[in-house]
Amino acid sequence: MPHTLIPTATSKTSETREAHGAPGSRWNSVRAVLDAIPDPAWITTRNGRLRLANRAAAECYGYQEEEWRNLNIASLIGCEQEDFSAVARILAEEGYYYFEAEHRCRDGRTFPGEARLTLAIVQRATVCIVIAHDNTLLHDAESAFRKSRERFKKVFEYAATGMNILLPEGYFLQSNQAFCDFVGYSSEELRGMTVADLTHPDDLDKTARIMNEIRDGKHRHINIEKRFLNKQGDVVWGAVSATWIYNAQGRPDYGIALVQDITDYKKNREALEHERWFLQTVVDGVVDPLIVVDLDYRILMMNRAAGKAGQGTPRDGELCYRYFHRQEAPCCDDYHPCPLAEVKRTGNPVTVVHYQAAGDGSQRIFEVQASPYRNRDGELCGIIESSRDITYLFEAEEQLREKETRLNYLVQHDTLTSLPNRDHFYTRLRKTMQTAGKTGNRAAVLLLDLDRFKNINESLGHDLGDRVLCRVADRLRRCLRDSDLVARSGGDEFVIILEEIQDVAHIDIVARKIHKALSPLLEIDSYQLCVTGSLGISVYPEDGADAEDLMRAADTALFRAKENGRNTYQFYTPDMNARSCELLLLESSLRRGIEQQELVLHYQPQIDLFTGHVRGMEALVRWNHPQRGMIPPGDFIPLAEETGLIVPMGEWVLREACRQNRRWQTLGFSPVRITVNISARQFLKGDLVQMVADVLEETALDPGFLELEITESMVMDDVETAIFIMAQLAALGVHLAIDDFGTGYSSLAHLKRFPLTTLKIDRAFVKDLTVNGEDEAIVRAIVALAHSLDLQVIAEGIETEEQYLFLKERGCEQGQGFLFSKPLPADKIRTFLRPLMVY
Ligand SMILES: Nc1nc2c(ncn2[C@@H]2O[C@@H]3COP(=O)(O)O[C@H]4[C@@H](O)[C@H](n5cnc6c(=O)[nH]c(N)nc65)O[C@@H]4COP(=O)(O)O[C@H]3[C@H]2O)c(=O)[nH]1
What we know:
- This protein has an 8-stranded mixed beta barrel, surrounded by 4 helices.
- Residues 1-23 and 835-839 have low confidence and may be disordered.
- It starts with 13 loop residues before the first helix and ends in a 10-residue tail after the last helix.
- The radius of gyration is 72 Å and the shape is rod-shaped.
- With 839 residues, it is α+β, with helices and mostly antiparallel strands.
- Helix 18 (453-460) packs antiparallel against helix 19 (462-479).
- It has 33 helices and 32 strands.
- Residues 604, 620-621, 632-634, 637, 650, 653, 677, 679, 709, 739, 763, 796-799, 816-818, 823 line the site of ligand C2E.
- Ligand C2E is lined by residues 604, 620-621, 632-634, 637, 650, 653, 677, 679, 709, 739, 763, 796-799, 816-818, 823.
């Protein structure tokens, strides 16, 4: 680029002189200097007319060399001509002027520029040196800076987050509106305050420590959540994020602290935490383990009990099967059905049972209940699962089952013999009959009653009686097949069911087998006992359509078997039924008769055959039946014996007879002995002696005026027991007579041991006494025997004079019979008590 030299014009004015003072050769050195200046530079006259321009000016403003000379500097540097006059004046006074304006180029382009104008004397001429500078870059930078500042200011000012500039000592240098709003102080007020002034007392220590550490250069950045106290004294929470700017010495210069108002967030979080705490407390309060599991088996929540049941502290996202069962896969077998899978399958709450081995090796059983856990849209997200150890329930159930089984056994079995009991028997009998009904086969019921078992019980004691029953039960069990049922139906009664009988002869065989099994002597303690039994047999379907009918038939047959002389068996036949009915009716009516006091006593005098005096009265019971009239004892005594009614009835007879005798005595009649019949059942009943003693005491009758009649067979059945009882009765002072003597088989040896006073000759011998030589011989023998044993003899059934005389002649001291009197009611028999009759 060639040097630009402005051609000068010669002028006579001072200015022209000055300008003229810059001829080409003289100015060459000046021009060289100007060109060395990187900025545009000119030499002008004091009025601004251009004389010399450097290369930079030509490049910057775009003028050609010849164009400069017509230009005034004012038009280039943005200074109007008139203004430049003012500039020229200042220049003249000051010698220097600085000027910034819009510079204009030849092509009309403008740019911000500056111009430094300096008056100088060059080549003895006063000139103005103008150096311009393009400030475009500076202007741009300044403008950018200004804008950025502006923006920052706005950001600072309008930011929703609180912003502060802090000094390391904690003073607020500058705070934005958001922070002012947060703490309630104006930025002016804050300027004199420190961080500590705004900090909640509980957070003061922590804040002070952090500020110290910042000052010590330990933290450039901090992020904390803390409580502030606002101007109103309320607690507000702020999340503080501060960055510290360090100075050249490496010390914190100032800090920029952003404070986010998290009061609401904190409150929400606190509420949420409280809610969570509440929820956790509630679930922890559940004693059973409770967990929430998502669809991937991850545990979302659990209570304390579940924590105890699992393996230590669960990790985040812990899998339920791993935590609770130490498995690597979800539960799936019958011992561990998967509740989640079940809920997924059914979509409903489910209950499954888990079997688990406990630490001690025992097996525990858990009931697991799982409900679907759904989101707000109702989609399944997992399950809520609770489990309960129900081992104890199973154990209790097991125990209950065992108890029930035991109870069922007890309910169905006889405690003494362990044989099935009556209820069990009936249940089985009904089943048997049903089966027999279907198959067309027969079934049989065998009712076994032990003969005279009562004697054993009452004479040898109940303990021994029980042992006999057990041994009999054993024998029966052993002699019967497993398919047959043998039960104890009560007392000394056993009952046997035979099933599926194709041939009735088979029943016969079994009945014999039973008798055979019972026949060997039973050895118990020192006793050898002969136990026999009578069997009544009924057959299905012939003898009864239902169990009760069949039993009734067997019972009837048993009765007949006993009547037939015991130790035998009897099949039921239909004709037995009529008699059974009759007996049944009689029994209930007799029972009622005893209650209604329909029994009466008649008395028959017993006469001293030698003196004719009444020596005694025999009390004979009658039943004054409201419809049937006076019923003789022969028609109801056997039934009373069989049903046991004889016991209360006999007691009544004894009491009434004693009372009557005592009444006669108190009425002044000469005392006589009263004879009362004692039945076999009464005799063997354990309390006979006590009962007699009580009645005597009650009626105040002297025992010497009471005679008890027992039959020959009663004492001969069990001699030892009889002697024992008789001895006790005799000890009371009561007389004892053997009734119907001669009909049984009394041995002399036994008779000698009985504490008797009287033998009574049976009516049957008296009847034909005078015509039958055999009877005569018997009577004679009885009288002789009695006398040899020092016993009195009385003959009954004396109807004729011949009989009376005959007996008297044969030495029989006493007698009774129709010849003297029939049995009469008490009021009528009194006549016998007055004058003594002599024949
Ligand atoms: N043909 C005839 N009979 C005569 C004559 N003299 C008396 N008799 C009857 O002979 C029976 C005598 O009583 P028993 O041999 O002890 O025989 C009694 C006795 O074994 C029993 N009995 C009566 N009352 C009672 C009682 O209170 N308790 C008990 N256990 N048995 C009684 O009933 C049986 C029958 O009693 P009864 O019918 O009262 O019959 C009485 C009586 O009426 C006579 O000259 N000719």
